[in-house]
Amino acid sequence: MIDFRLGDEYEALRKTVQDFAQNEVAPVIGGFYEREEFPYDLVAGMGRMGLFGLPFPEEFGGMGGDYFALCLALEELARVDSSVAITLEAGVSLGAMPIYRFGSDEQKRRWLPALCAGEALGAFGLTEPGGGSDAGATRTTARLDDGGGDWVINGSKSFITNSGTDITRLVTVTAVTGQKPDGRKEISAIIVPSGTPGFTVAPKYSKVGWNASDTHELSFDDCRVPAGNLLGERGRGYAQFLSILDEGRIAIAALSVGLAQGCVDECLRYVNEREAFGSKIGAYQAIQFKIADMETRAHTARLAYYQAAAKMLRGEPFKKEAAIAKLVSSNAAMDNARDATQVFGGYGFMNEFPVGRFYRDAKILEIGEGTSEVQRMLIARELGLPS
Amino acid sequence: MTNIVVLVKQVPDTYSERKLSESDHTLDRESADAVIDEINERSVEEALKIKEAGEGEVTVLCVGPDRATDAIRKALSMGADKAIHVSDESLHGSDMLATAKVLAAAIGKVEGVDLVIAGNEASDGRGGAVPAMLAELLGLPQLTHVRQLTVEGGSVKADRETEEGITHLEANLPAIVSVTEKINEPRYPSFKGIMAAKKKPVETLTVADLGVDSGEVGLGNAWSTVLEASPKPPRTAGERVEDDGDGGTKVAEYLVAQKLI
């Protein structure tokens, strides 16, 4: 039967991450954001709690949990701050998950324990300067050198999260490794350890939001890695990536719900303190209706991602549900950030208030991990409309 | 192998509004969220550090109503090995003396205890005397207000910090230690710990199981009685000093008038 209660262990995890976010992240994150500095100590703390290992089995240093547990952690972190949430999301979904899902036993043993402990970060390089949503337009190439011992990689990648921190150990990149019999590009995924000669990490971007997270452009100039660094099957790089992306959408939905709920949290605190025209502003219907709408958006978006996650964990197809969850949640985050800023008035425009940070962090949610347009495209296709 | 018992208390969350019940002036447990007392997270952390530095077993001991199992679970999810939960209707309203008797009896149920770690003072009653009472009842050395602790062989060394200064103490094991908030920063439980906690043994005991006479515990047998309780009056606005260039002088004059300087 239908039951929307969280199991005891999920609830205990949610509460633990909530405590961590409020006690450890909230007091300091504003400063990191302002300085555009990566919060190493917070990431280490998240690592000690096992957050980076949540969906992985214990034999690789994981927590033996599942992807929904990760989503709950992302939501609670993003209620307070999105930079740390996206660092976790990318570290797990894009850094460790492809290796766990497609790696050889040797690759898993080599990379996963440190990634699960949050002592090391991995990144995934798909997007290129000339192509975002159209991942098939990959121009980065990798060819086996004459002896067949090394991949030689050339090209560049854009907007790669966690790719340039002091603890980044690897970037998995997609590259064209040949041509398929039908003339299409053969795309494969290859692990490039940080510090490999020919692999250059550009200075970090100046971003509108997510300013305490690490994002760089990467370039590869005759970068050589051993042939054994191929991740998964040759020619399956794009298909592998797509399967990772569907679950990643649920994670971004959870993160978006967190931001949307964080806006409600901040507003409730503020409207019970702030006075105007002789009353607390929370007594005015104009404010109450706004907050009621915000809560409604966060609530419905949460139901959408819970349900998508439930289908995924049951092993059922969840592509449409994941796209819907991502679409409604990112909308909710954006709408709530706008409304929360309005409720705060002039203070909402000040960086020192969390809602200002939420406003800057919300927009990317309608873009990353598939734009809202891509989500609509996917939903339409799932409904059988022509692609 | 150090065999450690950690005392854990469930208290109303200090962030919520706490009050006493109108009927008998005991803690109104329904009015506030119940959490493990923060100082006990530090007690558990200290026990886990000792265990992890060598070998040991950590038993959580809690006296409290049924819902105190949540506090026990938290301690187990941090990494404690097992728990004893003393839950009995007759304990309702017990004072510190009765509580200490029950705790002493429960500690007696654990074989070969080397060390008992408690919080310095619970954030609800703030009596701060139970560790000392326990030491008296069990005939063990007490090291209270501890901000640093080392276990070496058969002895324990501690830095005891009070307003007067720091005292360096040493005692033979077994001993009773109570810690202050300076002792450590408690860990957050991991998901693995949370899941493992579900499978750890929790022994639930009644007062009769402990061989304690129910005529010695509970509200009716407490040595002191709360006659009346009223909420703290809201803070008044205070006196406002306008600064017309002589604000400093005015503030000083005010303080002098109050005989504060």
Describe this structure as you would to a colleague.
The complex is a heterodimer of chains A (387) and B (261). Chain A has 387 residues and is of the alpha+beta class. Chain A has 3 domains: 8-122, Butyryl-Coa Dehydrogenase, subunit A, domain 1 (Orthogonal Bundle), CATH 1.10.540; 123-235, Butyryl-CoA Dehydrogenase, subunit A, domain 2, CATH 2.40.110.10; 239-382, Up-down Bundle (Butyryl-CoA Dehydrogenase, subunit A, domain 3), CATH 1.20.140.10. Helices cover 50% and strands 16% of the residues of chain A. A 4-stranded mixed beta sheet of chain A has the order 1-4-5-8. In chain A, strand 2 (141-144) and strand 3 (150-161) form a beta hairpin. The longest helix of chain A has 35 residues, at 237-271. The two termini of chain A are 36 Å apart. The model of chain A has no long low-confidence stretch (mean pLDDT 94). The model of chain B has no long low-confidence stretch (mean pLDDT 92). Chain B is globular. Chain B has 261 residues and is α/β, with parallel strands linked by helices. In chain B, a hairpin with a 2-residue loop joins strand 7 and strand 8. Chain B starts with a strand and ends with a helix. Chain B has helices at 38-53, 69-78, 96-107, 130-138, 191-197, 247-257; strands spanning 2-8, 10-12, 34-36, 56-63, 82-86, 115-119, 142-152, 155-162, 165-172, 175-179, 202-205. Chain B has a 9-stranded mixed beta sheet with strand order 9-8-7-10-6-1-4-5-11, with helices on both faces. Chain B has a two-stranded antiparallel sheet with strand order 2-3. The chains are: A alpha+beta (387), B alpha/beta (261). The A-B interface holds A 8-9, 12-13, 16, 19-20, 45, 48-50, 54, 58, 63-65, 69 and B 73-74, 77, 187-195, 198.
